[in-house]
Amino acid sequence: MNKSEITLITADDHPMLLKGLSDELQLNGYTVLGQAGNGAQALELILFHKPILAFLDIDMPILNGFEVIRTARSKGSQTKFIILSFHKEPYYIAQAKALQIDGYLLKEDSFLEVNNCIKKIMDGTTYFSRSIDGKQIVQATDELGRLDRLSLSEIKILKLIAKEISNQDIADQLSLSVRTIEKHRSNIIEKLELQKGNNALTKWALINRSVILTK
């Protein structure tokens, strides 16, 4: 496929970064169909234009990059997604891996890295920036692996915890006793290898909310 046949949209809430990326893509022969300054605009462009690729920042107004991906896919989008962000912490990488994104680049990367990413994705390979330490990817993978230890019932409860729903309301929703919910919480803490303490599970669930809600 020629570069001109690779259609893209770009989304970032920093106008200069957005323009710079879009201009560079066009100068290198790619076809940029649209630019978005927030997540809602990005979602609209993706669903309307059906681009082959979409570059998304994570921290955008209205919908963040991960929410755009999740929503677009729920509506049947076949677009391939590349995150372009300042974030390289395992927490963000874990969210990206949970969503099975196609590429993850850092804003510090050169355009050569962007080109490499596009080429690898078009060849059917997932691509993570070479600036991301392999240990961070392993740590993110381990974080996801912990969730696989939970039963379906425990995942259901953890999702409700991540939505900041109280034990009593969880018990009411699932037609269980509060004591049963507390027992489940204790089991989840043990399986996730969390330190026991006041609200330890709730804090962990809120930090990893995006990952949990993709399960």
Automatic annotation (TrEMBL):
HTH luxR-type domain ranges (all copies): 143-209
Matching InterPro entries: CheY-like_superfamily (IPR011006), EvgA-like (IPR051015), NreC/VraR/RcsB-like_REC (IPR058245), Sig_transdc_resp-reg_C-effctor (IPR016032), Sig_transdc_resp-reg_receiver (IPR001789), Tscrpt_reg_LuxR_C (IPR000792)
N-terminal signal peptide: none
SMART domains (alphabetical): HTH_LUXR, REC
Keywords of this entry: DNA-binding, Phosphoprotein
Sequence positions bearing 4-aspartylphosphate: 57
Domain Response regulatory intervals: 7-122
One Pfam family from the record: Response_reg
Name this polypeptide is given: Response regulator transcription factor
